[in-house]
Amino acid sequence: MEGKRRPSASAQDVVAAVDDLVATSVVGQQEFARNLGLSVTDLICFAYVLQAGDDAVTAGELATRAHVTTGAVTGILNRLERGGFVTRCPDPADRRRVRVVAVPAASARVREIYEPYYARLMALFDDFTPDEIAVIAAWSARASAVARTYLEESCEEPDAP
Description:
Layout: H1 11-36, H2 40-52, E1 57-58, H3 59-66, H4 70-82, E2 86-90, E3 98-102, H5 104-124, H6 130-154
Antiparallel strand pairs: 1-3, 2-3
């Protein structure tokens, strides 16, 4: 496949487009969460549980990834468990620690909401060459790493006084 001729763009154009994508995605996450009866933070934590797959995550890991306090993550897990999204089980290596896994039916509910959106995103790639897709993937991964590092360096720790 030969690449399409595309209009030129500056780094500032890309940052502006990413800002728009992020803002639109935040609104979308709010709507997805509302459709599931969750808050955005609850949905983010559930997404982290789903990303872990068969590896059950700890409450502490969720608190760190979602940048919330351990106390807050307890409330989030209570709501997710009451809503039928997750189950908690003791860590076999440390009975004081709790591990969290997704409930399969809840995973299916979330997929039903996200799959039409993901299908549209996947369709966008039909317009790009494999080399262009590789650049998009590399840039996205590096931009995510920059965002995580900035968050860690610039934001107060959730359990800090």
